[in-house]
Design brief:
The protein is mainly α and 316 residues long. The protein contains 14 helices and no strands.
Length: 316
Amino acid sequence: MIVLAAVRRIAVSVVLALLIGLISFSVMYFSPGNPAAMLLHYRNPTGGLNQQTVEAYAERLGTNQSFFAQFGDWLTGALKGDLGQSFKTGLPVLQEFTDRMWCTFGLMLYATVLALTVGVALGALSARYHNRLLDQIVRHLVVVNMSVPSFCLGLLFMWVFAIELKLFPSFGYDGAWSLILPGTVLGIGYSGTIVRMTKSSMMDNLGSPYVVTARAKGLTEGAILTRHVLKNVSLPIITLSGMNAVSLLGGSVIIENIFGLPGLGNYLITAIKMKDFPVIIGFVFLMGLMVIAINLLIDMLYALIDPRVRLAANEN
């Protein structure tokens, strides 16, 4: 039954979420450096620190307790929706996350839509005009696109469209307009793999019997590609888009720092420098939940698009 398959996937997702929390907590706990000393030095960089002051501050933060005691407290709070408070600001981690998530989510959504639109369109054109001039141009553009790192593309776009043409803000966040330029950089960066996947899948389907039948009915090549072939190659494109959406979480860290966006990636880098345990662990845990949710969404889209997935679920 589909319902039982969904319940199994949710149960596995819960276990994965707990493992993500355990691993992220373990990495931060056993990493070198004393968060109490680092925070005290940040707040008073010129003043000397003695061992008694550091130990007293560590006791106040709770970082002097054993691993199991700290992880137990964190897990108990996480199950209640409390991920602790930031050592640096004193604000709840969940509030810090929600205050910045909309910037990162907006950036990811725009980049994903752009990558899909550009990737599918160019991939379909490349398959339609295989081994012709347009196909060669697209192939060379994809190679160049995949060869240029995102930070180089970001700096180039900032110089051309923000500094020279003054079409977009070059730094900081002032509404959705500030996400256009960094989102375009991210979207273009991830569109190359979608172009290749789309073309490869379409070329594999062009010799299928249903395509031969469609041609015998008198349909044009464009109609065959858009009405029939594109629908049948949607599953690998959806899979790749889901993987790209997960990768965008990592790519957004670099782009947010280049463009000065107050998103999750930028704040996480600051927290790592300060060794702000609750923020780092909480952000990694919540991002892990996002990855799990994206994979669940992809599985549900599979069942909606391909009847064979629903049949397999019913047989199990």
